[in-house]
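Quick one, tokens below. Sequence please?
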């Protein structure tokens, strides 16, 4: 299935650019948000990897350490097509680590090694810092203005297209699974559930932007505290709530679908229901799978956004909280082609 053309916050871009022509064009540095405590049975490895995905590196570490894959963990998945730096933990109780050089290669460098009393858990990170070279862009006044607008006003907090698979294949797979087909592979099942949930979220956000309601709270809206996952639904949109919203202390949210009552009420609930009812089959499948209702901010602001000309385009750098996608920033900047997709097709 073809994915919808989700709404742009700042209008469809006019310039075209290419990312990931080479790994060094797409650099990601993970920010755990805390330091290891320097002791314990869990070895923390800060690794820079080039052209390797996270799960493959985890298998290499397990083989190097002589443990099962269950003893190796990481906070989040990082793309294969780039130069990415992230932390892995491996449980080695009462054991010294093997020789580090035996793990390293041209594509894998160990930057630091320390110990921690607890394993690294999935999702336990603050965010990621990106440095991206976009080939073909011209840093003209219009693009500079667009970058400044993105910095000030943010971008839709869409899930990136990679979440949905090639041509939305993960959505179709979710429909088949919800129709009764057994999926024994836990990773695939989780991937299909995430794709369906993300698809519904993106649709609600897109419709809210299309209706020009992304800066206008509705009665019954559920808010999220800026920089947090905590949220609340105020009894009324009084002056205090409106002031906090204007100051960006609180942000509008949209549903991550699952069973249970929505935190949205009144007008906001009616608006969201008018969108999600179009995907009632996916919603019911998510509820039957046991996922619970959650909320996610509809906008995200790239922090420390900076840009400069490069030899073949424009280089930008910024940081995002965990769970937000760099591609959602890029799609507001230019019509982006991903060179890694054509490389995979060869």
């Amino acid at each position: 299935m073809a994915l919808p053309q989700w709404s742009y916050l700042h209008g469809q871009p006019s310039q075209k650019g290419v990312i990931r022509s080479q790994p060094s064009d797409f650099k990601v540095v993970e920010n755990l948000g805390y330091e290891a405590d320097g002791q314990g049975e869990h070895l923390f490895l800060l690794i820079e990897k080039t052209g390797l995905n996270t799960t493959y590196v985890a298998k290499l570490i397990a083989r190097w350490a002589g443990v099962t894959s269950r003893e190796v963990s990481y906070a989040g998945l990082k793309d294969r097509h780039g130069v990415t730096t992230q932390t892995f933990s491996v449980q080695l109780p009462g054991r010294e680590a093997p020789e580090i050089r035996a793990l390293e290669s041209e594509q894998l460098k160990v930057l630091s090694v320390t110990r921690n009393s607890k394993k690294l858990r999935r999702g336990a990170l603050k965010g990621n810092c990106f440095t991206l070279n976009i080939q073909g862009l011209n840093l003209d006044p219009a693009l500079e203005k667009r970058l400044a607008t993105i910095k000030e006003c943010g971008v839709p907090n869409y899930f990136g297209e990679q979440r949905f698979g090639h041509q939305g294949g993960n959505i179709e797979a979710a429909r088949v699974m919800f129709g009764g087909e057994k999926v024994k592979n836990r990773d695939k099942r989780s991937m299909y559930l995430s794709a369906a949930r993300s698809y519904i979220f993106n649709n609600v956000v897109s419709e809210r932007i299309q209706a020009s309601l992304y800066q206008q709270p509705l009665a019954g809206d559920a808010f999220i505290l800026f920089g947090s996952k905590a949220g609340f639904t105020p009894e009324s949109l009084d002056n205090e709530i409106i002031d906090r919203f204007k100051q960006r202390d609180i942000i509008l949210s949209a549903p991550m679908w699952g069973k249970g009552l929505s935190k949205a009420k009144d007008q906001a609930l009616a608006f969201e229901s008018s969108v999600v009812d179009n995907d009632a089959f996916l919603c019911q499948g998510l509820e039957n799978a046991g996922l619970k209702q959650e909320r996610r901010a509809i906008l995200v602001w790239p922090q420390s956004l900076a840009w400069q000309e490069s030899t073949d385009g424009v280089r930008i750098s910024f940081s995002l909280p965990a769970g937000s996608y760099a591609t959602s920033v890029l799609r507001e900047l230019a019509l982006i082609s991903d060179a890694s997709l054509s490389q995979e097709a060869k």
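The first strand starts at residue 16 and ends at 19. Residues 75 and 123 are 5 Å apart (CA to CA).
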